[in-house]
């Protein structure tokens, strides 16, 4: 099965044309137009070109040889663009190195083998691995070195074959060299689909060392547009939203996680979201491109609903080898409405100049100007309507009962449950003991972004409900044996769902064989914050406590009003002297607060109890109701007692057996609940005995194509 487009020649293409020459043409024709919007670091095309010329001269004065590779640290971004253009002007190739994770940066340097590293003293110290790599300093020394240099273009050395060296997003972080021709062809393919204009203002949320930015800056600077950059080192959801509104961004390039935070999770627009109205704060956006990970049709529709009518939302499948393009899909490509939008992720059709083939279920990509198709390591199928559908990744395959299992179809089927926003399937070892130990399929679930339940994800299905939902849809070997509910799915810097960061399911508490490692295990989503959180949310807890306090006061006041209605006179303290009258009034208030707490715990308590240890559904339900009774029963009990005649023995006996005896029973149930060891996450919902000692996440065992080429796609 093949899908592709014929090669094309841009109408403005000249002999020897490159992305650099495209930028220089705009700098020559419109020197006063804004090129970089970054607060006080904003630059016009003329200023950016002049500073890039000075940077190129400085690099040549440092002995830069022809066709060399120069590594650049990833921040600050305005200076980064000056350096990238300066490196190209000097006839060299650039590569952007991550500095926040020094170990990753050192691996990138080892893979790219640059002639020199352009960095300030702090970044040099982070990346120092004891080698003899040459360092060209930025900061004050670089400013002094370039200040007296001419702003005219240097005598350009012959361009080499390579324009940039980019890195894949997989665990191996391979270096991928891109030629000038491929970088320009990728830009032209994107421009032919997106139709950019000089009035566009582009914002790229990807980190500078990732393909989205390292190759994506051409989308603005080769078309006369402006590139909006953060004033700080990173984009945050707040600064991103402010920038889109204040800078009137028209084209946003982002990943699924960031798009969801910006377009769906905005609390201020909750009413508009509920009514499916566009967000007025994003009215300037005419196009959003989402890349980095799979995007389901229902998610794409929800994101598009937050934009103004006529705006476009493209799901881009962009491997590193194609400089961030490959295929794209937008909802108008559908010939007719489809059922099961929550289970379908479409890659769509190839970009101009690209070709997609499906061979033995694996997607092969022919890049612009490329020869042999590149195996992407991704699975797909060409639908009858001509659209390519994403079916998972080979490196994610699991082995179940000796057979390979692709988790994507199972995860898609799980998403058909109305409460599930995202799902990941993992194989976890440790169910059973000794020779009977066996791996178990565990479904990690998270709610949809627009889900407003509290706590987040409290309405997610448990194991029994999920299996009931999947009955008849999946064979038994593909059915998850356990469920772990998360507030959100962990994602990496590129916006991909991060399977390696899934929290370890809890084992049997106090097990003599070691129990579960809760120290973190090297994952920020494990250990202490093993519910998918990255740390304590102080502001969130403060808000929760405040709203709980307000709610308790309101319910307590309402309860006192009900007391006067149902038991008139029970709170009469006319003949009681102080300070005893005050003490009794406080007692009545406490009874009302206890009843209010019981009502709250009735609706919110069980989900919280299940988060803190699995002791079986029956005892958990019994303990939940027992706690509710222990809290709520004081209010009616004391009112009845205060109005009961002291010598009315039948009434006194009825009250004792109606209230006191149940209180004792409830206390006993709670005692059994807290003293019973937690069951393993692998226990069946019908009460099978716990059998797991130390569950350990199992790596995907069928890595037939581990290290496959397309490590940075968005399907």
Walk me through what this model shows.
The chain is of the alpha/beta class. The protein is elongated. The strands form five sheets. It has a 14-stranded mixed sheet with strand order 1-17-18-19-20-16-15-14-13-12-10-11-2-3, sandwiched between helices. Strands 5-4-6-7 form a four-stranded parallel sheet, sandwiched between helices. Helix 2 packs across helix 3 and helix 17 runs antiparallel to helix 18. It starts with a strand and ends in an 18-residue tail after the last strand. Strand 21 and strand 22 form a beta hairpin.
SSE order and pairing:
Elements lengths: L1 E3 L14 H11 L4 E4 L5 E2 H17 L7 E5 L3 H13 L3 E5 L4 H11 L3 E4 L1 H7 L6 E4 L2 H8 L14 E6 L7 E5 H15 L6 E4 L6 H4 L3 H4 L4 E3 L8 H10 L4 E4 L1 H8 L6 H5 L12 E4 L6 H8 L7 E6 L9 E3 L16 E5 L4 E5 L2 E5 L7 E9 L5 E6 L4 E3 L2 E3 L1 H9 L6 E10 L6 E9 L16 H8 L11 E4 L52 H29 L13 H32 L5 H16 L1 H10 L5 H27 L16 E6 L18
Parallel strand pairs: 2-11, 4-5, 4-6, 6-7, 10-11, 10-12, 12-13, 13-14, 24-25
Antiparallel strand pairs: 1-17, 2-3, 8-9, 14-15, 15-16, 16-20, 17-18, 18-19, 19-20, 21-22, 23-24, 23-26
């Amino acid at each position: 099965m093949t899908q592709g487009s014929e090669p094309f020649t841009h109408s403005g293409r000249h002999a020897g044309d490159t992305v650099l020459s495209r930028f220089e043409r705009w700098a020559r024709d419109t020197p006063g137009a804004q090129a970089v919007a970054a607060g006080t670091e904003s630059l016009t095309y003329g200023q950016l070109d002049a500073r890039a010329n000075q940077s190129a001269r400085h690099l040549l004065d440092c002995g830069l040889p022809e066709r060399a590779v120069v590594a650049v640290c990833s921040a600050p971004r305005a200076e980064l663009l000056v350096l990238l253009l300066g490196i190209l002007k000097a006839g060299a190739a650039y590569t952007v190195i991550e500095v926040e994770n020094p170990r990753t940066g050192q691996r990138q340097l080892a893979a790219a083998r640059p002639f020199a590293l352009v960095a300030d003293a702090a970044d040099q110290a982070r990346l120092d691995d004891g080698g003899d790599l040459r360092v060209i300093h930025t900061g004050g020394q670089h400013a002094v070195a370039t200040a007296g240099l001419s702003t005219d273009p240097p005598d350009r050395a012959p361009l080499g074959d390579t324009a940039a060296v980019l890195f894949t997003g997989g665990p191996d972080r391979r270096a991928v060299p891109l030629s000038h021709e491929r970088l320009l062809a990728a830009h032209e393919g994107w421009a032919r689909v997106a139709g950019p204009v000089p009035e566009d203002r582009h914002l790229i949320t990807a980190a500078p060392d990732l393909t989205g930015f390292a190759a994506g800056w051409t989308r603005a600077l080769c078309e006369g547009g402006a590139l909006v950059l953060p004033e700080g080192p990173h984009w945050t959801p707040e600064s991103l939203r402010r920038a889109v509104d204040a800078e009137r961004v028209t084209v946003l390039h982002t990943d699924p996680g960031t798009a969801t935070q910006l377009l769906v999770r905005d609390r201020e627009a909750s009413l508009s979201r509920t009514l499916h109205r566009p967000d007025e704060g994003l009215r300037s956006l005419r196009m959003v491109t989402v890349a980095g990970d799979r995007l389901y049709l229902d998610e794409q529709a929800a994101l598009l609903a937050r934009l103004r009518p006529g705006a476009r939302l493209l799901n881009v499948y962009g491997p590193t080898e194609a400089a961030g393009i490959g295929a794209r899909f937008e909802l108008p490509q559908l010939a007719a409405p489809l059922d099961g939008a929550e289970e379908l992720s479409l890659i769509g059709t190839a970009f101009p100049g690209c070709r997609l083939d499906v061979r033995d279920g694996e997607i092969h990509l022919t890049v612009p100007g490329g020869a042999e198709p590149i195996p992407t390591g991704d699975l797909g199928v060409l639908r009858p309507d001509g659209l390519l559908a994403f079916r998972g990744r080979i490196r994610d395959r699991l082995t179940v009962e000796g057979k390979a299992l692709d988790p994507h179809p199972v995860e898609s089927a799980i998403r058909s449950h109305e409460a599930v926003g995202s799902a990941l399937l993992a194989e976890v070892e440790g169910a059973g003991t000794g020779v009977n130990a066996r791996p178990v399929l565990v479904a990690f679930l998270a709610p949809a972004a627009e889900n407003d339940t509290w706590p987040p994800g409290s309405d997610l299905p448990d194991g029994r409900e999920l299996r009931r939902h999947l009955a008849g849809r999946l064979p038994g070997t593909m059915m998850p044996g356990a469920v772990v509910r998360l507030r959100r799915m962990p994602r990496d810097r590129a916006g991909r769902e991060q399977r390696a960061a899934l929290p370890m399911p809890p084992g049997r508490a106090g097990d003599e064989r070691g129990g579960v490692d809760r120290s973190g295990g090297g994952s920020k989503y494990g250990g202490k914050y093993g519910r998918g959180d990255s740390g304590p949310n102080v502001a969130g807890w403060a808000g929760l406590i405040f709203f709980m306090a307000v709610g308790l006061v309101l319910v307590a006041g309402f309860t006192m009003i009900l007391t006067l209605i149902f038991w008139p006179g029970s709170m009469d303290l006319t003949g009681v002297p102080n300070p005893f009258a005050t003490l009794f009034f406080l007692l009545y208030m406490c009874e009302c607060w206890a009843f209010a707490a019981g009502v709250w715990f009735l609706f919110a308590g069980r989900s919280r109890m299940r988060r803190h240890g699995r002791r079986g559904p029956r005892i958990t339900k019994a303990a939940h109701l027992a706690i509710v009774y222990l809290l709520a029963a004081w209010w009616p009990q004391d009112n009845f007692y205060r109005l009961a005649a002291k010598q009315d023995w039948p009434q006194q006996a009825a009250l004792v057996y109606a209230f006191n005896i149940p209180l004792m029973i409830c206390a006993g149930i709670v005692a059994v609940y807290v003293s019973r060891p937690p069951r393993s996450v692998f226990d069946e919902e019908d009460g099978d005995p716990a059998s797991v000692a130390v569950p350990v996440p199992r790596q995907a065992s069928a890595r037939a194509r581990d290290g496959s080429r397309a490590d940075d796609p968005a399907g």
